[in-house]
Amino acid sequence: MVITTAQVPGRRPPLLVTEDALKAMSAGSVIVDMGASALGGNVTGSRPGETVVTENGVTIVGADNLPATVPTAASNAYSRNISALLLHLTKDGALAIDTNDEIQAGVVIAHDGKVVNESVPACSARKPRETPMSTALVTDLTIFVLALLVGIEVIGKVPATLHTPLMSATNSIHGIVLAGALLIGVTAHNPVGYVLAFIAAVFAAANVVGGYVVTGGC
Questions:
Q1: Residues 6+ apart with CB under 8 A from 200
Q2: Torsions phi, psi for 108 (to 5 deg)
């Protein structure tokens, strides 16, 4: 049995098995040409989607777009496995759990209100660990400072459009502070974070609005 797979996208596949090679093969030989297409194939005489038998008894299978059939075969195999498992878990049409069964012991996780699978740790009634307030505060302050530094570096290259260049810079920086305050307010997990976000949003918004008011709405 010979399987050929050589393909060149958009071009004729290379010829690997010539007519002379076919004649030299014994009767009953099978060639699967996975490179068969409308442009040709790897085997002389192969036709896409057809099975051809030569005069000396060599069978040429022109596998047309064989990879496209893989999903169907995979889905069929998976569905058969699931069906077999469900049938193994039932008896006389009813669910029958037997944790002593090797197969069921590997797939059943919880039964009768308790974990029965050894590979799964027992459920714990402990509350999820909360982040200490001090850690959250440091995180919020770090984000605030980094946002301020990045804002100064970026906004410094923006042309001045308000009353003075300094007012333009501070106004733009507070715009970034306002965005950071809103982000912290959404992600905060403690009262301190909410308070800091509120204070930052109020002062930043006041400066942004005030800058345009002083400039006359420009």
A1: 144, 177, 178, 180, 181, 184
A2: -85, 125
Element (H, E) at 33: strand 30-33
What does the pLDDT look like over 109-149, one tens digit per residue?
A: 888 888 888 777 755 445 556 555 567 678 778 877 887 77
Question: What one-letter code names the amino acid at 49?
Answer: G
Other CB atoms within a 10 A radius of the CB of residue 49 amount to 12
Domains in the chain: ranges and CATH: 1-64 (3.40.50.720), 69-115 (no CATH), 133-215 (no CATH)
C-beta separation of 180 from 200 below 8 A = yes
Closest CA to 166 of 107, 211, 218: 211
Q: What's the distance, Cα to Cα, between the start and end of the chain in Å?
A: 81
Q: Which residue has the tokens 């958009």?
A: 10
**DSSP conformational letter for 42:** S
In tens, the pLDDT along 156-208 reads: 665 555 545 656 666 666 777 777 777 777 777 778 778 888 888 888 788 77
| φ, ψ at 153 (rounded to 5°) | -65, -40
Handedness of CA 19, 21, 24, 29 (dihedral sign): negative
> Whose CA is closest to 172, among 215, 140, 216, 204?
204
Tell me the two tokens of residue 149: 């530094």
Per the CB < 8 A criterion, the answer to whether 61 and 48 are in contact is no
